[in-house]
């Protein structure tokens, strides 16, 4: 980046944690946001309700935002109806327990992984509305997805 250029992406330090000690250390070392999950050997699964509640306390003491992984199993991101019901049930439990659900589901991360998988299968173009109802509303995400594919294909000449 040349001098005088500004970054359009805000710098946010998000740390993926699966234990309270990891959360505590991340908060003390300056994390802006914690992504809480369990079972890192499966690339992260839904954390337990108790872990979430304890993490909320630590994060609130440090002014750190918290997002939680909602993923019922490892492997791909193609879920059966039963698995979808399982994850919706988890959301219902979180809501019933009084967790502040702002309605934001980090589908962008899942979409990025899907783009990676599609790229590995040879896909070089994706028609998308950028995770929104209209293409205009999703233009920023679409541009980000385009950049991901462009970076992946730029080495192919």
TrEMBL record:
- Provide the taxonomic classification: Eukaryota, Sar, Alveolata, Perkinsozoa, Perkinsea
Question: What family is this protein classified in?
Answer: Belongs to the CutC family.
Annotated protein name in UniProt: Copper homeostasis protein cutC homolog
Matching entries from SUPFAM superfamilies are given as: CutC-like (SSF110395)
InterPro entries recorded for this chain? CutC-like (IPR005627), CutC-like_dom_sf (IPR036822)
Any GO MF annotation of the entry: copper ion binding
- Which Pfam families does the entry mention? CutC (PF03932)
């Amino acid at each position: 980046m040349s001098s005088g250029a500004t970054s359009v992406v805000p710098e946010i330090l998000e740390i993926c944690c699966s234990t309270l000690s990891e959360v505590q250390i991340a908060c003390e070392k300056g994390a802006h946001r914690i992504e809480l999950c369990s079972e890192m050997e499966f690339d992260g699964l839904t954390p337990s309700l108790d872990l979430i509640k304890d993490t909320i306390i630590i994060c609130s003491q440090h002014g750190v935002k918290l997002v939680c992984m909602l993923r019922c199993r490892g492997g791909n991101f193609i879920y059966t109806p039963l698995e979808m019901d399982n994850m919706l049930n988890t959301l219902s439990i979180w809501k019933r327990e009084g967790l502040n659900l702002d309605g934001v589901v980090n589908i962008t991360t899942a979409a990025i992984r899907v783009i990676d998988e599609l790229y590995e299968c040879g896909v070089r173009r994706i028609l998308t509305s950028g995770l929104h109802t209209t293409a205009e509303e999703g233009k920023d995400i679409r541009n980000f997805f385009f950049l991901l594919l462009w970076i992946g294909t730029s080495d192919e000449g």
